[in-house]
Amino acid sequence: MKILVVNYSLGGYAGDAVQMITVVKGLKKRGHEITIATTDGDGYFYDKKRSDLYQPIRKKLLDGRGKEIEIDGMTVFPIHCISSKLGMYCPSAGKEAKKIINKFDMVYIINWYYHLGMVFSKIAHECKIPFIVGPMASLQDKAHNIKNKQKWIADKMYTKEMLKNADGFHCVGNQEKESLLKLGVNLDKINIIDNGIVLKNYQTDKQTRFLEKNGIKLNENPYLLNIGRIDPKKGIELLLLVFSQLNKKYRNLMLVIVGTGPEEYVKKMKEMVKKLGVQESVKFTGYVTEEEKIELLNSAKLFVVTSHSDVHTTTAIEAMAVGIPVVITKASDFPEIDSYEAGITVESSQESVYNAIEELLDNEEKIKRFSKNAKKLVNDRFLLENQIEKYEKMFMVVSGKN
Question: Which of 7, 295, 310, 353 could make an SS bond with 110 (beta carbons 3.0 to 4.6 A apart)?
Answer without folding.
Answer: 7
